[in-house]
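User: Fold this; tokens only.

Assistant: Input:
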Amino acid sequence: MRVSRVVLLLFLGILLLSSWGCVVDQSPPATPTPEATPTPLATASMNCSQAKVAIQAAIDAYSAKYGAWPTGNGTAADIEWSKLVPEFMGAVPGNDSKCDWQVNSNPEGEVCVVHHC
């Protein structure tokens, strides 16, 4: 009888210990957040001189409002179109991939084109 008590106590002890190790997570499963895909900016067909006038007006307006140029770091560099479109320009010039419009450093703030359209 004594052996059966010891076995019963050991069995209950093992059950008790194993129940402490099994903690069920009651929180709802995490739902993965889909990555946001950037909305493509509108493009417009413009010749080189039309684009230059429109871009210069837009970068001047941007600079007047924010005190920086519409580039990655706010200094003279490649234009970040998302900073200009649609607030300061209706669309990106369609010829930007060929021309590569930028904000010039000398004279500072003037629109320049790396590759002539």
